[in-house]
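Following up on my earlier message about indole-3-glycerol phosphate. Here are the inputs again, as you asked, copied directly from the submission form:
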Amino acid sequence: MPKAKLDQAFERVLTNGDKAFVPYIMAGDGGLEQLNKQIEFLASCGATAIEVGIPFSDPVADGPTIQAAGIRAMKNGVTLAGVLSTLQQTKNSRDIPIVVMTYINPIYAMGIDIFVEQCSHAGIDGLIIPDLPLEEEGLLTNQLSNHAIALIRLAALTSTPERISEITKRTEGFLYAVTVTGTTGARATFKTDLDQHLKALKEQCAVPVLAGFGVSTAEHVKQLTTHCDGVVVGSRIVDLLHQEEYEQIRALVAAAKLS
Ligand SMILES: O=P(O)(O)OC[C@@H](O)[C@@H](O)c1c[nH]c2ccccc12
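Thanks, got it. Here's what our run produced:
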């Protein structure tokens, strides 16, 4: 099988000496007709891949910024099916890999087989499902591997060493190293022993390790990427897109480039 688009994108960035930058956007914040334009803009800023969030009424891992964006999107009538069909429109013209982030409930509501089919039609490269524990992921792992869609696992700061070892073995595409305990949202600083934690994950993991949660400044990006392969930035990007601060987004993404 040819190398997956997600793997290729990381390889390109990392062999260049740069770090990966994966912005998160809430699909339909600003209207679903903006989604493909936002993706194109972020790609033009130098993003490695885009994490596209599906609005959901009970977003247990989301902090206030992402929750507010989800509410705006739901007011626009945005659904999982609508997001996937919008992404399908640019499947053949876009180069940048797309990772869909959704809770398990909307997947269930749509039906697992239909969901995976639709993701494949839409050219989705990976999935993040934060409330799907390792023990339950057999629900969709076979279908995903048939369609070469990566299931990106998250390692929490509170995960036990045994669990971490299972997560690092199983993860596909990249490992999402959660940097804080709690929900998403910009933070001023990180735990002092985070560097050690990221280094340990990196040693165990065969795919790139990306740090996410709380990353909101160029300094954070530089600081965290000394110990891992890149960052995921959500709340800060969601805010800046909402405020139409495009130059600030460009500067933040550029912080992951070799300098
Ligand atoms: O917003 P932050 O703190 O930059 O964190 C990234 C995050 O928003 C994004 O990856 C995400 C949004 N919702 C999630 C739920 C679970 C895991 C991750 C996410």
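One observation from looking it over: The chain has twelve helices and nine strands. Hope that helps, and feel free to reply on this thread.
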